[in-house]
């Protein structure tokens, strides 16, 4: 019983620490970014409830922007569904990675609770979870994720709400620019990551993307990302193997 109480106290404190970490910068970056999306959604013909439900249900900027763009172009519901699904397909790998980092199976959560918590996963939460992995034991990473993800989710929804009406007060061009704040924050976060493979993946992907753009168009980002991540992963495996080899 004492062990359970000790874990509950530690989990509660970890959630509070995670919320404080989120309040330092990530939640504001995400909130402003979602305000930029809300402006795009309004210009695409969304009403307030459509914009709000898109953020609540999709919770992935590429998928949300794809939804708004195709809706304004008059695309069919099937095309919109496929495009949003493909745009958010990257989240599948992040879900697998985050579940592995948190040792989600060891918490014996029912399937619906796993799905529920993974719905709040964003690249901001995933990147910060990797940093938290260096400071917290594995059994406290789920509470950390819960505190962090819920905090940025609340700010993201508030950003969607306020952003929908801010276009009446600010020029739309300004609000469209702020949509890039979160990607810039994520880039700085990964550049400062301890693992060299992560920094190398960003560097290779960033260099290859403009190289492939004249030939592949919008697919250049996807191709550069796959190649950058693959080459960085091979580099990481090579370094790990080199360090494990016995000295002759």
General description of the model:
The chain has two domains: 2-179, no CATH class; 195-248. It contains 13 helices and no strands. The protein has helices at residues 2-24, 26-43, 48-57, 61-72, 77-87, 90-101, 111-118, 123-132, 141-166, 172-177, 181-191, 196-216, 219-244.
Give the rounded overall mean pLDDT.
Answer: 78
**Envelope shape:** globular
The major sheet is characterized as:
none
The rounded distance between the terminal residues' Cα atoms is 52 Å
| Count of discrete domains | 2
Which range best describes the helical content: under 10%, 10-25%, 25-40%, 40-55%, 55-70% or over 70%? over 70%
C-alpha Rg, in Å? Answer: 20 Å
Low-confidence stretches: 1-7, 244-248
Structural class: mainly alpha
For the secondary structure, the number of strands is: 0
Number of helices: 13
The proportion of strand residues reads under 5%
Query: What is the helix/strand order?
Result: HHHHHHHHHHHHH
How is the topology of this model organized?
Blueprint: H1 2-24, H2 26-43, H3 48-57, H4 61-72, H5 77-87, H6 90-101, H7 111-118, H8 123-132, H9 141-166, H10 172-177, H11 181-191, H12 196-216, H13 219-244
């Amino acid at each position: 019983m004492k062990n359970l109480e000790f874990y509950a106290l530690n989990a509660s404190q970890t959630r509070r620490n995670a919320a404080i970490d989120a309040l330092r910068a990530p939640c504001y970056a995400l909130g402003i970014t979602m305000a930029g999306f809300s402006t795009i959604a309004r210009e695409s013909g969304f009403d307030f409830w459509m914009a709000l439900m898109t953020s609540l249900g999709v919770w992935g900027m590429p998928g949300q922007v794809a939804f708004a763009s195709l809706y304004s172009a008059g695309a069919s519901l099937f095309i919109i569904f496929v495009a949003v699904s493909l745009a958010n397909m990257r989240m599948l790998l992040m879900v697998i990675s985050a579940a592995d980092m948190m040792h989600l199976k060891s918490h014996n959560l029912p399937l619906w609770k796993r799905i529920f918590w993974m719905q709040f996963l964003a690249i901001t939460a995933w990147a910060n979870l990797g940093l938290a992995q260096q400071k917290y034991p594995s059994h406290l990473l789920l509470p950390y994720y819960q505190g962090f993800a819920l905090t940025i989710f609340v700010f993201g929804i508030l950003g969607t709400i306020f952003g929908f009406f801010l276009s009446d007060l600010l020029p739309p061009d300004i609000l469209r620019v702020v949509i890039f704040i979160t990607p810039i924050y994520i880039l700085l976060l990964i550049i400062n990551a301890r693992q060299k493979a992560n920094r190398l993946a960003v560097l290779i992907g960033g260099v290859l993307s403009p190289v492939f753009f004249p030939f592949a168009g919008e697919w250049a980002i996807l191709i550069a990302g796959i190649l950058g991540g693959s080459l960085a992963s091979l580099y990481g495996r090579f370094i790990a193997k080199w360090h494990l080899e016995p000295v002759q």
